[in-house]
Amino acid sequence: MDDPRRAGLPQPAGVRVDQVNQVARAFDALDKAQQTARCEAIARTAFGAWGDSLGPLSLLSDGFNTTFLGDSDRGRVVIRIHRRDHRGDNGLLVEKRWTDELRAQGLRVPEVLPTREGAPFLESRSGDSTEPQHVSVIAYRDGKVLSESLTGGADESAILPHLAELGALAATLHGHTEAHHELDHLAPRHLAPLGVSAPFLTEAHLDPSLWALYSDALTRCEAVFALQTAPLQLCHADLHGGNVLLTGDGVALIDFDDCAVTWPGLDLGIAAFYLRVMP
Predict the structure, then answer these.
(1) Is 223 within 8 Å of 193 (Cβ atoms)?
(2) What separation, in Å, do the N-terminal and C-terminal C-alpha atoms of the chain show?
(3) What are the strands, taking DSSP E only, across the chain?
(4) Could you tell me which of 47, 45, 43, 48 has the C-alpha nearest to residue 62?
(5) Does residue 35 or residue 80 have the better pLDDT?
(6) Taking the complete model, does pTM exceed 0.70, yes or no?
(7) What is the radius of gyration, based on Cα positions, of the chain?
């Protein structure tokens, strides 16, 4: 029987894990300029599922996903190209449904635009072995990134009200998912430090002294995680200043790409870590 939760989603491609890993390695083998050019070509081709016209694209970020900003017949949009080895169907589906629910309650969170057919993302299938897997489109929200206000002699008296508003917004997010667990069974889980493990960082990536430092830190973090007793719930899971916008209407949260079921304290810990640069 068809799963009604997956209505509007593309049909699975039936790609095995070993095939996904092979594709990820092929993409990693490209240099940065080649990767960006490949992603921009994917963005332009894929946008036809959302609209008819797309102007020049500018690169916004390039990390676990690559994002471009452009003007289109759907308005100003952010096009995200997701790595095959980072975000799967369920993660993107949870992001779309959760942000829709939060926005309906008046929270300033991203609007994930559906394709013409109502799907929350498009799965690229051009046959290119170096192609990332998913494309999604977000309505652009204007504002100043909070992290830009935390450096260069930031005025603490001007920043603290924004941080208080961010804390209240995070508490509202946690309060929502504490009462609603409908998406928990679909959401990824972050139950280890950083939410990742060996596939992302291995001894081969670091020189011996840095690997020893990393291993010690990881062991300490794992010990702290083992002590956690708070109930698990859906969280933003990447609540740093680069994902907070200061807008004319107040603080807005962006980039729910890492949202996952975890301990609410993880949001607090990530926010506190990035706020250490404050005077």
Answers:
(1) no
(2) 58
(3) 58-62, 65-72, 75-82, 112-113, 122-123, 134-139, 144-145, 233-235, 244-247, 250-253, 260-262
(4) 43
(5) 80
(6) yes
(7) 19
